């Protein structure tokens, strides 16, 4: 469901599905939490280039990982977000706690 890479304690998560919703949120949550348990990770960058739809379960996946990472002094960022998903970020208030960037390089330079 996800691809990931780790660079200097920065975890890049790329969603392989086009939807981040209740159908797959538990599986994705478990995959990410397994990575967080197994590796030393300070920051997470979520790449939304494939995501066209996100529901409240998807919001929960992102916010839950935000709480874990921020409680340890890290940051969570999002890149490659389309207008439809950005609207969900804006309406839900996620854009107030999670930074949105155009590129991976922009996100990394802000950490």
UniProtKB/TrEMBL annotation:
Keywords: Phosphoprotein, Sporulation. PROSITE patterns: STAS. GO terms for biological process: sporulation resulting in formation of a cellular spore. Residues 10-111 form the STAS domain. It holds the Pfam family STAS. The keyword Cell membrane does not apply. Belongs to the anti-sigma-factor antagonist family. In the phosphorylated form it could act as an anti-anti-sigma factor that counteracts SpoIIAB and thus releases sigma f from inhibition. This is Anti-sigma F factor antagonist. It comes from Romboutsia maritimum. The lineage of its organism: Bacteria, Bacillati, Bacillota, Clostridia, Peptostreptococcales.
């Amino acid at each position: 469901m996800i691809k990931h890479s780790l660079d200097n304690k920065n975890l890049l998560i790329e969603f392989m599905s086009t939807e981040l919703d209740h159908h797959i949120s538990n599986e994705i949550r478990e995959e990410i939490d397994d990575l967080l348990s197994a590796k030393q990770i300070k920051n997470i960058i979520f790449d939304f280039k494939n995501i066209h739809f996100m529901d409240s379960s998807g919001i929960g996946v992102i916010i839950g990982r935000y709480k874990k990472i921020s409680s340890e002094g890290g940051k969570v960022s999002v890149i490659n977000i389309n207008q439809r998903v950005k609207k969900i970020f804006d309406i839900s208030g996620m854009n107030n706690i999670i930074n949105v960037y155009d590129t991976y390089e922009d996100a990394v330079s802000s950490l």
